[in-house]
Structures are given as structure tokens and as C-alpha cells.
Amino acid sequence: MIAEAAERIAALGLSPARLARDPVNLPAIRDWLAAIGDDNPVYERDGLAPPAMAQVWTMRGLRARPDADPLHEMSAVLDAAGYTSVVATDCAQTYHRYLRVGEVVAVRGRLLDVAGPKRTALGEGWFVNTESIWEVAGEPVAEMRFRILKFRPGATPPASPAEPIRPVVGLDTAFFWAGLEAGELRIQSCGDCGALRHPPGPACPRCGALKPSYVVAAGTGRIHSYVVHRHPPLPGRRSPVVVALVDLDEGVRMVGELRGVRPDEVRIGGEVRACIVDGLPAWTPAGLADLPPWELAVTPTVIVSTALATRDFQDVHHDRDAAVRRGSRDIFLNILTTTGLVQRYVTDWAGPAAVLRGIEIRLGAPCYPYDTLTFTGQARGRDVAVTGRTGTGEHVAGTVRMAS
Amino acid sequence: MIARATAIAGIGATEFAKDSGRSELRLAVEAVRAALDDAGLQPSDVDGLTTFTMDDNAEIAVAREIGAGELTFLSRIGYGGGAACAVVQQAVLAVATGIASTVVCYRALNERSGRRFGQATTPPGLDASWHYPMGLATPAAMVAMVARRYMHDYGATTDDLGRVSVAARRYAATNPAAWFYRRPITLDDHRASRWIAEPLRLLDCCQESDGAVALVITSAERARDLRRPPAVICAAAQGSGTDQFVMTSYYRDDVAALPEMGVVARQLWGQSGFTPGDVRTAVLYDHFTPYVLMQLEELGFCGRGEARHLIADDRLPINPNGGQLGEAYIHGMNGIAEAVRQVRGTAVNQIPGDGPVLVTAGTGVPTSGLILSGA
């Protein structure tokens, strides 16, 4: 029944344009900048809307009028089938240009597809993919692919996500893991003949000495081979995971996750640089510039004020009791805010002159009050890979594209 | 010398299923009984039992259940599917030296309905710590690392892997015992199957099965007087390479190779006196398609990097039972049973000729192999 409804609604194609209730306006921009904490002066100075606000202008407000909209129609079908809770999981926005104060935006949307029922950590649910196009007087100004999970809240609180697999540390290998804790990538060396070796062990296979020592790797190397892991899910991880076997410049090989790169961009022979992620060796493509990390203390005020400034009146973002009733631990950050925080992180680093062409994000662990949300990023050319983590895991991972 | 001293006198198996609904011990008992019956022997004839370290059925439990008496030989081999032909080698060693007279090798597992090897779970041991936490936590991902390098070094493509799968399913389609009986696939099916761990697709990975297989080994001389024509064991070898790891031998100069199978190959040809050109059909352990190509090269059927041409040209019949891709995943033991049927001339997809039959065990780990021939 759900599949048939999805097919019917998807076949309708793009909906007619629905006008925003208000033109792009400075008060809304100021509230948004204040809630996000974005001090970039260009918006007020030049009368421009922050790009991540694209979706804000056509939000329906607190008292939404029910009219034809593919996502709303599909949501109603899923609501009726008992899949009453919702979380956004993916958002890919493209900005053709920034909106100007005074412009009136219209949105057209269509349902792409619906997949399910799937068992998720939150409960059984359906993934709904939609596309939205924002226009000003018929001119497309922004586009978005959006993915939500409509789920049936479990009778019991959702199971905590599985713990990631951790290394087993032994007497002969402890130096390696201690090195990572100390910020060093260590390679075993023989205390007698100096031979380097990875993985390590108690004896030198070359001279037989039982005097293991170590050197600290320069952290540079090349990809010898790699894997894009997709199935089955890895405990506590999100697929795909790119894992690379790297020839370190010192002459030993080592396995680590390759981050900050799209799977289809990886090449054997590619230069990488070592980094340390969650106490494990990992790699990033050489030539990436690290953005300074940014820590945001997420208070209830941050969650509620940003929800309202993005004109998202879903109760799970401001009403704790309602959030718990819908299967959540507490109120949580909405995806429009996460998109905005990602925008702020990148423009804070790139400077006020930076112009964004797109933000593509995937949400993971929810961000609750009293979490510390830590953003890290790597820039390569005009692309910035951004990750935001809370104490419980990855809240967001994505890419920001800047205009050249 | 062990060459031609012993023979496989009986084979037995349960049905190959996805949910057997029975205990692994019961599966073991059913397969062992069937193998003894096939050989025309009684449980009381059994004085040796060998299996994999991964098998959860104690030798003494199997002995109790089948009603065997006293045992003089109990042995197990490690390293997962790499043990398959090595447990037979254990039996050969015991029989050839007079330690035992009738040894049964068995492997019983509810791998699909019970503990699935393809799931990412925390492994024991220090070696795994260099791979599992970083995201190499499944056999497919571990093989994919080698496969990617192999493709890079020799220009093989995912289509070359797909042809291995298509060939296996073509044979399985005409094997009523195979899970994929009457379900052949095309190269397009392979191309359309989802990625598991790039460059491996679902159809590059063997299936998961419930079931059991047992083999009865006795002296070649005695086997000639038993119910079935003996499958004489002309060679039985085990091998481990330099700097060997379990599925993750990434620290050798040449990652795109299976030197442990090279160690096995040299012994197999040396013991038996055969050459690759003599072999009628090979039953190669096919947990993942790339390792079928690499085994062909290590065994000397073709040069390094050339196996894809051998497969594309269909020059050597491989896995006429459908292999583990098509028949069932009984940790390689069903491949040995197929090799016996080929020697006897009773296989459903019988390969003509009277040349010897080669069979291998799991690769990427310390592995093993056999060459069987008629009396």
C-alpha cells in the first residue's frame, strides 16, 4: 500500500510552485545569524541571505496550511500506517546564487522514491527521498535533495548503537597504541639491527634480537591498495568506509581508514598523510589543509533558538516531553541548523568573501542538549570535507563546495 | 612416502540448506554415517577422527553419537577453510604410518542459520587489531584489498571476476544437490549485483550454508576391497607462506599473490609426479572469485596474471559441482567430495577422461590441497 502510494505520488512529478509567506527579509536573517552564531558581516552589509537559509524561506510555519506537496502527502500516508516519527538523514543543497533581501521565493517539490520497510536503530521505518527547487520569478536559485526516515517509534527506547571494534592491546604491541594516544605514529625498530617492521612482534625476524624499539613515522606514504567497504554494516560505523593499505615512506605497510575522499576518487599510488582518529591510524589525501577544530557547546537554547530561527516548528526540536514520546532521548538539533553550522564553520575559516555553491551532508548520531559538537574539516581545492562529532559519535559528515 | 598409500573410500553429506533446523552435531553424525555407509564400513571400524579447529563438534562427541569404539587418532587443523585438504592429510599421515586404519574427516556447520562468518564481529587476538578496527572486519573486505591490487598489477577487471561466478552457477544449475540448482546467472547479473567491498560484488562472494560433509580415509590396498572404487590420494599437502597472516598477508613484497598455495602446488606435483597438463578438472576453493584466478596461477595452470584468459577461454573445467559459489559453502569439504565423484565417474557434471583431479582448500590463509586419481 505504501509502495503503491509512493509510486502514485512520484508519478505526479514536480508540484506547482508554492510561494513563501514572506519575502527574504533582514529580521529573519539577523535572527538566523544570531542563533547560528555566524558573525559574517556580508549578509547584512550586502542584503544577502546566508545560502544555508534557502529552505528556511519556504518553511510552512507553526500553523501549516495543508495543501498539495509531495513530501507532505507521502508523510500523511506513512503517518496513517503508523510511521509517525521523523528524522532527516541526508541533505544536499546546491546554490545557483545567493538570495537578496526583498525577493519572493517559491518552491516546487517532487517525490523521488520511498524505500522500506527497513529496520533501523530508531525502529522500523521508510526512507523518503525528495527533491526541491527554489525559484525567484521562475529563475532557479537553489536545489535540494532531501532524505528523511519516517519510523514507528519503538515501545522501548532505541538500542544504543553497537560499539566500534577496538584493538586488542598486548605486551608486544602496547607501544604502538600508546604512540597514537601521544599523537605519534610509531613503527617498530629492532634495538640491535635497526630493521623496521609492521605489524610488530617480540622478536626481530632479521637478526633475532629480542630488543624491540620504535621510531616515529613521518606520516607520509602512498596507497598500495584499498577497499570500499559497503556491506554488512560495521559495528558503530557508517558505510561506505574506505580502508587503505599504505606504503609508508619508511618502508613498511600499514592499514588505516582513508578519510576526506570520495570512494571514486581513490587511486593506487595516491599520496596520503597519516592522522589519528579515535585512537586508530588513519589517512587523508596529501595536499589537504586542516581547518582548525571548532567546539560548540550545545545548550537547550541553541537547539530551540536555531529551530525557531530556521522556522522549523517540529515539536521534537523544542518540546522535550514530545521528543521522548516520539522515541528520542531529548530534543535534538534540526537538520536545517546542522546545515547552517556547517556553513558557518567553513565561512569562518574561508573568510567573508567565500561564496558557497553547495552543502551536502549526512546525519548520524543525534545532537542533544549538553553535547559538545566538535567540527573538523579538510580543504582540498574548493571542496571542504566537514565532520561534526558529539561524545557519542559522528553527528554529521559532509562536503561544502565553494565557488572558485 | 605417502603418495598413493591411502584412498578416500567413502563420502557422505547432508542436504545443503540455509536453515537446517538441526544441531551441528546431528549434521555431523548424519554425514559421517552416510560416508561410512558409502564405503561399506561400520562405525566400529573407525579408529581416527579429524576436523577443523573451527568445528564445534568434539571428536569424542561424534564418536559417541555414531557408536564408534576406541580411537587412536584425534586431530584438528586451524586457519578456517584452509584446513579442508589438510584434515585429509592428517588422515593420510595416520593411516600411512599405521597409527590408525580408518579415519573419518568431518565438517558440520550451521553457517547460515547460526554464526555467519561474513558478519563484522570482534575477533580475538592481536593480529586482527591491525585490520578489524580500521574497517577490514569481513572476509570479503580482506580479500578485496588483495583483489584491488591484483587488478591493478595485471589489468584484470570485475568482469573477469564475474566470469568465475557465471561458470560456477552454470554448473550448479545442473546439480540437483546445489543450492542454486536451475538458477544460472549471466555476466549482466554479476554486473548488477551490489557492491559488498569494492571491487567485490555480492556475486563474487560464495554463499552461506548449513550442512555437513564427511570423508572416509583408509589404505589404498584396503579401499580396493570396499564397496566403491577408491579415490587414491596421490598427493596431500599443506602450505604457509613467508610472513603469513590470516586473510591479511599485506606485508609481503607482492600482495597480489597466494604464495601459500605455491607451497602446496610444489608438493602436490612433486609427490604425485603429475603436471598441470595432466589434470582433468580442478575443484578450487572459491570463497571469493579473485582467489580462483590467483590459485590457477599459483598452481601453474597459467602464468602470473593470465588466469582470466584461461577462464574466458574455458580451457580447464573448474568446480563442476558449482563450487561454493553455486553448490554450498561447507568450508571446502564438499569440493573434496566432488573430486571423489569425478574420480569415480559418478558426478552429475562428469568431466570426461581419466586424468587426476586436483582439489584445494581455503586461500589467503595457510592452505592445503590434494590430487586424487583412480586405482
Automatic annotation (TrEMBL), chain A:
Source organism (scientific name): Paractinoplanes durhamensis
Family annotation (InterPro entries): ChsH2_C (IPR002878), ChsH2_Znr (IPR022002), FAS1-like_DH_region (IPR039569), HotDog_dom_sf (IPR029069), NA-bd_OB-fold (IPR012340), Thioester_dehydratase-like (IPR052513)
Domain spans labelled ChsH2 C-terminal OB-fold: 214-276
First and last residue of the signal peptide: none
SUPFAM superfamilies per the UniProt record, alphabetical: Nucleic acid-binding proteins, Thioesterase/thiol ester dehydrase-isomerase
Protein's UniProt name: Protein dehydratase
Domain FAS1-like dehydratase: 21-144
Domain ChsH2 rubredoxin-like zinc ribbon: 177-209
Pfam families associated with the record: FAS1_DH_region (PF13452), OB_ChsH2_C (PF01796), zf-ChsH2 (PF12172)
Coiled coil, from the record: none
From TrEMBL, chain B:
SUPFAM superfamilies in UniProt: Thiolase-like
InterPro entries: Thiolase, Thiolase-like, Thiolase_C_2
Pfam family, one: Thiolase_C_1
Domain Thiolase C-terminal: 254-358
Superkingdom field: Bacteria
CDD domains xref list: SCP-x_thiolase
The protein's name in its UniProt record: Lipid-transfer protein
